[in-house]
Write a structure and sequence with these properties.
Structural class: alpha/beta
Number of helices: 6
Radius of gyration: 14 Å
Helix content: 40-55%
Number of strands: 4
Strand content: 15-25%
Order of helices and strands: HHEHEHEHEH
Shape: globular
Length: 122
Protein backbone atom coordinates (compact mmCIF):
# COMPACT_ATOMS: atom_id res chain seq x y z
CA UNK A 1 0.00 0.00 0.00
CA UNK A 2 1.37 3.47 -0.88
CA UNK A 3 2.74 5.42 2.04
CA UNK A 4 3.63 8.70 0.36
CA UNK A 5 2.20 11.03 -2.26
CA UNK A 6 5.02 10.02 -4.59
CA UNK A 7 3.99 6.38 -4.28
CA UNK A 8 0.32 7.28 -4.71
CA UNK A 9 1.16 9.14 -7.93
CA UNK A 10 3.27 6.23 -9.20
CA UNK A 11 0.37 3.83 -8.59
CA UNK A 12 -2.10 6.22 -10.23
CA UNK A 13 0.10 6.77 -13.27
CA UNK A 14 0.54 3.01 -13.64
CA UNK A 15 -3.24 2.44 -13.51
CA UNK A 16 -4.46 5.37 -15.60
CA UNK A 17 -3.12 5.84 -19.15
CA UNK A 18 -1.89 9.33 -20.08
CA UNK A 19 -3.25 10.60 -23.38
CA UNK A 20 -2.34 13.50 -25.64
CA UNK A 21 -4.63 16.39 -26.48
CA UNK A 22 -4.96 14.93 -29.99
CA UNK A 23 -6.14 11.60 -28.58
CA UNK A 24 -8.54 13.43 -26.27
CA UNK A 25 -9.94 15.43 -29.19
CA UNK A 26 -10.54 12.23 -31.18
CA UNK A 27 -12.27 10.59 -28.20
CA UNK A 28 -14.48 13.63 -27.63
CA UNK A 29 -15.44 13.74 -31.31
CA UNK A 30 -16.34 10.04 -31.33
CA UNK A 31 -18.81 10.61 -28.48
CA UNK A 32 -19.70 8.68 -25.33
CA UNK A 33 -16.90 10.50 -23.52
CA UNK A 34 -17.10 12.52 -20.33
CA UNK A 35 -14.44 15.19 -19.77
CA UNK A 36 -13.89 16.09 -16.12
CA UNK A 37 -11.96 19.09 -14.81
CA UNK A 38 -10.92 18.20 -11.25
CA UNK A 39 -9.54 21.64 -10.40
CA UNK A 40 -11.15 23.76 -7.71
CA UNK A 41 -13.79 26.29 -8.80
CA UNK A 42 -11.54 29.40 -8.42
CA UNK A 43 -8.98 27.83 -10.78
CA UNK A 44 -11.64 27.14 -13.38
CA UNK A 45 -13.09 30.64 -13.00
CA UNK A 46 -9.64 32.15 -13.57
CA UNK A 47 -8.73 30.17 -16.70
CA UNK A 48 -11.84 28.53 -18.13
CA UNK A 49 -12.25 24.86 -18.99
CA UNK A 50 -12.50 22.56 -21.97
CA UNK A 51 -15.81 23.07 -23.77
CA UNK A 52 -18.35 20.57 -22.50
CA UNK A 53 -16.26 19.48 -19.51
CA UNK A 54 -17.88 19.11 -16.12
CA UNK A 55 -16.08 20.62 -13.17
CA UNK A 56 -15.98 18.38 -10.11
CA UNK A 57 -13.18 19.18 -7.70
CA UNK A 58 -11.07 16.20 -6.77
CA UNK A 59 -12.32 16.31 -3.20
CA UNK A 60 -15.93 15.78 -4.33
CA UNK A 61 -15.30 13.30 -7.14
CA UNK A 62 -16.28 10.07 -5.40
CA UNK A 63 -19.51 11.68 -4.18
CA UNK A 64 -20.47 12.68 -7.74
CA UNK A 65 -19.23 9.50 -9.45
CA UNK A 66 -20.81 6.86 -7.20
CA UNK A 67 -24.28 6.05 -8.60
CA UNK A 68 -25.43 4.73 -5.22
CA UNK A 69 -25.20 8.15 -3.56
CA UNK A 70 -27.87 10.87 -3.67
CA UNK A 71 -25.17 13.34 -4.73
CA UNK A 72 -24.43 11.31 -7.90
CA UNK A 73 -24.02 13.40 -11.06
CA UNK A 74 -25.84 11.65 -13.91
CA UNK A 75 -23.05 12.71 -16.30
CA UNK A 76 -20.95 9.97 -14.67
CA UNK A 77 -21.79 6.75 -16.47
CA UNK A 78 -19.52 3.71 -16.29
CA UNK A 79 -20.19 2.91 -19.95
CA UNK A 80 -18.49 6.17 -21.01
CA UNK A 81 -14.83 6.90 -21.48
CA UNK A 82 -13.71 9.45 -18.89
CA UNK A 83 -10.96 11.98 -19.58
CA UNK A 84 -9.63 13.86 -16.55
CA UNK A 85 -7.43 16.91 -16.29
CA UNK A 86 -6.28 19.40 -13.65
CA UNK A 87 -3.62 22.11 -13.56
CA UNK A 88 -0.53 19.95 -14.00
CA UNK A 89 -1.63 16.29 -14.11
CA UNK A 90 -1.17 15.09 -10.52
CA UNK A 91 -4.72 15.52 -9.28
CA UNK A 92 -6.14 14.09 -12.50
CA UNK A 93 -3.94 10.98 -12.14
CA UNK A 94 -5.11 10.46 -8.55
CA UNK A 95 -8.72 11.13 -9.60
CA UNK A 96 -8.39 8.60 -12.39
CA UNK A 97 -7.18 5.96 -9.96
CA UNK A 98 -10.14 6.75 -7.73
CA UNK A 99 -12.56 6.25 -10.63
CA UNK A 100 -10.86 2.97 -11.51
CA UNK A 101 -11.31 1.87 -7.88
CA UNK A 102 -15.03 2.76 -8.21
CA UNK A 103 -15.36 0.46 -11.23
CA UNK A 104 -14.92 2.86 -14.14
CA UNK A 105 -12.91 1.02 -16.78
CA UNK A 106 -12.18 3.54 -19.55
CA UNK A 107 -10.36 6.28 -17.63
CA UNK A 108 -7.65 8.52 -19.10
CA UNK A 109 -5.43 11.31 -17.81
CA UNK A 110 -5.04 14.27 -20.16
CA UNK A 111 -2.70 15.91 -17.66
CA UNK A 112 -2.79 19.64 -17.16
CA UNK A 113 -5.16 22.21 -18.63
CA UNK A 114 -2.07 23.85 -20.15
CA UNK A 115 -1.49 20.64 -22.16
CA UNK A 116 -4.88 21.20 -23.77
CA UNK A 117 -4.65 24.96 -24.24
CA UNK A 118 -1.11 24.69 -25.59
CA UNK A 119 -2.24 22.14 -28.15
CA UNK A 120 -5.28 24.20 -29.15
CA UNK A 121 -3.12 27.30 -29.69
CA UNK A 122 -0.76 25.48 -32.09
Amino acid sequence: MPTSVKQMLEAANAAVPKITSEQATDMIKSGNTLVVDVRDAPEVAASGKIAGAVNVSRGMLEFRADPELPSHDKAFDKSKSVILYCASGGRSALAGKLLKDLGYEKVYNLGGFKDWTGAVEK
